[in-house]
Amino acid sequence: MNIRQAIQKNKTETLIEVCEIFSSVQGETSKAGRPAVFVRLSGCNLKCSWCDTAYASEEGTRMDINTIIEKVLCYNIPLIVITGGEPLLQDRVFKLIDTLCLKGLEVMVETNGSLDISSVPPAASIIMDFKTPSSGQSESMKEENLKKLKRKDELKFVIADRADFEWARDIMRKHSPRAGEVLLSPASGSIDFTRLCGWAAESLPGSRVQANLHKVFGLR
Predict the structure, then answer these.
(1) What is the pLDDT of residues 82-120, one digit of tens each?
(2) Once rounded to an integer, what is the mean pLDDT over residues 181-185?
């Protein structure tokens, strides 16, 4: 059974396909540097050229929501990151997010921009990784998602070259999304960090250039 078949089967079994659950520090976003528990779900609908978690596309371990929450609570860390793969592929993730929020936890949902974000519980914050042309997946992005972002949400662009940066800048000018943070991440080994900072200062002065702390310090 491949991962798509497993996810489809789990829709009737009320299980979630989980790749891994672990603690580390949040390496990106406005929460960078904070300890966090990561719930990485299995399966992805995209194949980005610079993907660094391709293993999450494989079939994982089927777990019910209560088991996932028990494992999360064992860490005694209030910041929870739901990531993937692409977590919104699995319908049961919305119940998981809602339950975690009701327990008073701070939940961030990392998703690409190809799937409708309307069903994400409003108590959670969305980190939307809007794929740039160098990923090979920019045509899959749903621009209507940009209008659905809230002030507590964050919009991320991975930048590999000047063309990516100009594309992101044009997206911002066209849609003026309400996201509270606009994040620019250098693609690993593709672009000089200082150069990206210069472009941001010139054309996107309200953005946050992030150094991906988990990669700098060799963390998961």
Answers:
(1) 999 999 999 999 999 999 999 999 999 999 999 999 999
(2) 97
Among 38, 18, 28, 213, smallest CA distance to 128 is for 28
Q: Phi and psi (nearest 5°) for 98?
A: -60, -45
Burial class (CB in 10 A: 0-12, 13-18, 19+), 89: buried
- The sign of the CA dihedral 66, 67, 69, 74 is positive
How many structural domains comprise the chain?
Answer: 1
SS3 124: coil
Cα torsion at 158, 159, 164, 166 (round to 10°)? 110
Q: Which domain holds residue 21?
A: 3-216
pLDDT in tens, 159-170: 999 999 999 999
- Kind of pairing between the strands at 61-63 and 16-25: antiparallel
* Chain-centre distance for alpha carbon 114: 12
Q: Indicate the pTM of the whole model.
A: 0.92
Q: What is the domain-level CATH number for residue 24? A: 3.20.20.70
CA dist 5 and 1 (Å) reads 6
Q: How far is CA 173 from CA 99, 169, 176, in A?
A: 36, 6, 6
User: What is the dihedral angle through the alpha carbons of 158, 160, 166, 169, rounded to the nearest 10 degrees?
Assistant: 20
* Encoded tokens for 60: 């994982």
Residue 10: pLDDT over 80: no
48 near 6, Cβ under 8 Å? no
